[in-house]
Specification:
The chain is of the alpha/beta class. It has two domains: about 240 residues, Aspartate Aminotransferase, domain 2, CATH 3.40.640; about 130 residues, Aspartate Aminotransferase, domain 1. The strands form four sheets. The protein has a seven-stranded mixed β-sheet with strand order 2-8-7-6-5-3-4, with helices on both faces. The longest helix has about 40 residues. It starts with 10 loop residues before the first helix and ends in a 20-residue tail after the last helix. The structure holds pyridoxal-5'-phosphate (PLP).
């Protein structure tokens, strides 16, 4: 048959061609997936992976995976079912709830499982906004995660007033600013426990007391704090708290929301009666089990965070500051998480550092985000007033209990030549005495 000739196909022929096309499409997809898996395998087998990006996401602990697996297979029942098979899943769920509660020093009935930290944060803001319909004011800080800032922004567009508390050069808050901002109209104060970019810790327990004295509710985003700092909510005035599984060695896609017993609450998700009517939707059983196990491990590892992880963090900071001139550790003067280093290198650009580190198998993050073609420092770094020449070159290393001294020493060896090369080609560094003794000494520790 020549091109242009028309031929009508029988139903059998049509079916044959359609099936073949579908098969070919599926084959291509499968081939593509195999290629990707092979790339990842090669990376894992042949190259070092130095993972220093645990504030972005953390490795699922093998103990966690092991405990989750039976709930994908043999124990697939729905905990809401009346029969023994579904109902049998309820007990492991109760255990997971108790383990998360123990990590937070809370009661099991105060824990609500969610899909992630973002859902928990949204739940807090939406709940307070609707539970206090006559109060139209919310207070957050300038350095919150987008899960809080963007929800607050939306509420602002719907008529709420939002006050953003400023931070100082080390990323610290002044609680006098909070006192001054609270009004009889304030429904909620939402203040993160620890900052994801700098690790700077906020005095949330004191802030919650101040907030309660004015009759408003207090929420804290503890996504980065949980598992890294001791938390005891029993006697705290904190009404609501968010955590996320994948920051503490559980998988992505599971979170928890703490709601103090007796606090006002309006559900974010509506539907069935799961989670005692506070969060509808059939429970993600395997992931809840995983979060429970991760919480148990995190509680056991808390001491290690303050010894092993903090030791590695200090070694990394000191090693880099000694080897590279014109560096600045952001938040150095503040109380910080034991695992986070936010470091700026003058006259270089964060993304270039990350790409070159990545080529060496080192995974870190940038403190800056790409905004409409121009490389803008992150809102956290900008809020701290980090000088522009440093702000662009900010990167974050976030460690975990799985990291080693050898890995830290590898970074201390590989990073200085990268910065040196970037400074040589940096248009900003022209005519600047960057490598001389008279270079800016601002924060060179
Ligand atoms: N809050 C903070 C401080 C975070 O660092 C993150 C994630 O990076 C979130 C909230 C959002 O958590 P999730 O990724 O589970 O939605």
């Amino acid at each position: 048959m020549r091109r242009g000739d028309s031929k009508s196909f029988t139903n059998d022929e049509k079916c044959f061609y359609e099936t073949s096309a579908l098969r070919f499409g599926l084959w291509l997809k499968a081939y593509d997936i195999c290629q990707k898996i092979e790339t990842i395998n090669n990376l894992m087998e042949n190259e070092k992976v130095i993972y220093f990006d645990n504030n972005a996401t953390s490795r699922t602990a093998p103990e966690v995976t092991e405990e989750m697996l039976p709930f994908f297979g043999e124990f697939y029942g729905n905990p809401s079912s009346m029969h023994f098979f579904g109902g049998g899943v309820q007990k492991p769920l109760d255990l997971a709830r108790a383990r998360v509660a123990a990590l937070l020093g809370a009661m099991p009935e105060e824990i609500i499982f969610t899909s992630c930290g973002t859902e928990s944060d949204s739940t807090a803001l939406w709940s307070a906004a609707r539970a206090f319909p006559d109060r139209k004011h919310i207070i957050i800080t300038k350095v919150e995660h987008p899960a809080v800032t963007n929800t607050a922004k939306f509420l602002e567009s719907q008529g709420w007033r939002v006050t953003h508390l400023q931070v100082d050069g080390d990323g610290r808050l002044n609680l006098e600013d909070l006192k001054a901002a609270l009004t009889p109209d304030t429904a909620l104060v939402s203040m993160m426990w620890a900052n994801n970019e700098t690790g700077v810790i906020f005095p949330v327990e004191e802030a919650a007391r101040i907030t309660h004295a004015k009759g408003a509710m207090f929420h804290t985003d503890a996504v980065q704090a949980a598992g890294k700092l001791p938390i005891s909510l029993k006697d705290a005035k904190i009404d609501m708290l968010s955590i996320s599984g994948h920051k503490l060695h559980a998988p992505k896609g599971i979170g928890a929301f703490y709601l103090k017993k007796g606090s006002r609450f309006m559900p974010f998700m509506m539907g069935g009666h799961q989670e005692s009517g506070r969060r509808a939707g059939t429970e993600n059983v395997p992931y809840i089990i995983g979060l429970g196990k991760a919480a148990e491990l995190a509680a056991l590892n808390l001491e290690k965070e303050n010894t092993h992880v903090k030791g590695l963090r200090d070694r990394l900071e000191q090693g880099l500051s000694k080897a590279i001139k014109n560096t600045r550790i952001n938040g150095l003067g503040a109380e910080r998480l034991p695992n986070t280093v936010n470091i700026s290198f003058e006259y270089v650009e964060g993304e270039s550092i990350l790409i070159m580190l990545s080529e060496k198998g080192i995974c870190a993050s940038s403190g800056s985000a790409c905004t409409s073609g121009s490389l803008e420092p992150s809102h956290v770094i900008r809020s701290m007033g980090v000088p522009q020449t440093y702000a662009q070159g900010s990167i974050r290393f976030s460690l975990s209990v799985y990291n080693t001294v050898d890995e830290v020493d590898y970074v201390i060896k590989e990073l200085p030549p990268i910065i040196e090369r970037l400074r040589v080609i940096s248009p900003f560094a022209e005519d600047k005495p960057l490598f001389g003794m008279d270079a800016c000494q601002m924060h060179n520790h």
